[in-house]
Amino acid sequence: MEECIFCKIVKGEIPSEKVYEDDMVLSFKDIEPAAPVHVLIIPKKHIESINDLTEEDSNIIAHIYLVAKQIAEKLDLVETGYRIVTNCGEEAGQTVPHIHFHLLGGRPFKWPPG
Ligand code: 5GP
Ligand code: ZN
């Protein structure tokens, strides 16, 4: 996707503070952190949102959760807890149309979210 900012981050055309990278996924610090730990985990493949997932993406999504677990361990969040959020669509607050998982931690969170 030519204009997608997260595809540009994957290609290194926009700089990011990388936290984790492998063949399938990239994780980097959110530019506007909403918590002491706020990283984004994205597939390198351009998928717009949850609505666009297909069966063939199952392995990517499963892998993202395993990567999230690894990052949570690395950033020492396992004991205290952390939250993983994917916004889908405008009303839910999705602003970047490339599916991403927010990994948030380092402070308490309220439920239900606002
Ligand atoms: P959404 O609102 O779509 O769920 O989340 C998009 C997130 O991407 C926001 O938290 C926003 O701060 C972050 N973001 C937007 N542009 C950039 C960028 O260029 N670099 C980084 N690191 N994060 C970004
Ligand atoms: Zn993209």
TrEMBL record:
Transmembrane segments: none
Pfam families: HIT
Keyword terms of this UniProt record: Hydrolase
Active site annotation, chain numbering: H100 (tele-amp-histidine intermediate)
GO molecular function: hydrolase activity
Enzyme class: hydrolase
Record-listed E.C. numbers: 3.-.-.-
PROSITE patterns cross-referenced by the UniProt entry: HIT_1, HIT_2
CDD domains listed in its UniProt record: PKCI_related
UniProt KW Hydrolase keyword: yes
Chain coiled-coil ranges: none
Motif Histidine triad motif location, chain numbering: 98-102
Residue ranges of every copy of the HIT domain listed in the record: 5-114
Entry keyword Metal-binding: no
Protein's recorded name: HIT-like protein
